[in-house]
Amino acid sequence: MKAVILAAGKGTRMKDLTQELPKPMLRVQGRPILEHILEGLLAAGIRDVCLITGWRADVIEGHFGDGSRFGARITYARQAVQDGTGKAPEYAREFVGTSDFLLTYGDILVRPETYQHMLARWRDGDFGGLLTVTEGQDVTQGGLNFFDEQFCLTRLVEKPNPAQLEELRATGWLKPGQPVWYNAGIYLFRPGLFEFTARLQKSPRGEYELTDAITAMVAAGQQVAGLKIEGRWVDVRDPEVLASLQG
C-alpha cells in the first residue's frame, strides 16, 4: 500500500496565513498539518508516500526532503494547473504503478488509527475503492453519500444545493432521523481509478471532480466501501478552525 497526499492548493480562505506557506504546512500544535498526516500513515505501515505539490512547493519539499528523517520514502509530483480534485491524483500515476493506494487531502486531520481502520475494512472485501465519511456535517460544502446494507456506496451527490436537497427528501433518499453521510476526504483505491479519472469532463463548477470518477466506478459495477471515521475529523478549512486546534 502506498499513499498520495494532495497538497498543491494555496488555501485562499486562510488569507494572509498562506502568502508564504502552502496550507498543509500551517502548524497545528507546533507541527505542520502534513507531519500529523504522515505520522498516522507510518503508524499504519505505509512508508511510500507521494506528495502532490503546487503553491510554494519548495517549502514542502525543503521540509520533508526524501522522507528519511521521518522513516518514510517520499517522492513529489508538481501539479501545475489547479483544475480540480479529479485530475490531481493522476500526477502520482507513475508512483502508484500497480499498487493499491491511500489518497488524502493535505488539510484533513484524523486520529492516527483511522488509517489502520481503513486498511482493515479494505481487506474485508473485493473493493475498487473505499470512501470515508462523517456524520452530520454541512453537506452543501462537500459530498453527500448514500450506502446499502453492507455500507457500500450506491449514490454520491457533490455539494448539493437547497433545491437538490429538497428533491432528495421528496424522493425518499433523505429520510428524517437517518444519518447524513458527509464525504471525509480520505480514500483507498486500486490503480484502476485512473481509467475513470482519464475520462472525466469538467463539472458545472468548471473543475474535474474526483467524486464524478467515483460515481462512474459505481455505475460500472465496482464496489466502493464506506467507512465512518470514529473520533476526530477536522477539515482545516479556515483560520477559525486552525485557531481552535492550538489548545
Describe what you observe in this structure.
The protein has 247 residues and is of the alpha/beta class. It has a single domain (2-244), classed as Alpha-Beta Complex (Spore Coat Polysaccharide Biosynthesis Protein SpsA, Chain A), CATH 3.90.550. It contains eight helices and 13 strands. The chain has helices at residues 33-43, 57-64, 93-96, 113-123, 162-170, 193-197, 210-219, 239-244; strands spanning 2-7, 27-28, 31-32, 48-53, 73-78, 101-105, 108-110, 129-135, 143-147, 153-158, 181-189, 224-228, 233-235. Strand 4 (48-53), helix 2 and strand 5 form a beta-alpha-beta unit. The mean pLDDT is 91.
What tags apply to this protein structure?
two-stranded antiparallel sheet, 8 helices, 13 strands, Spore Coat Polysaccharide Biosynthesis Protein SpsA, Chain A, nine-stranded mixed sheet
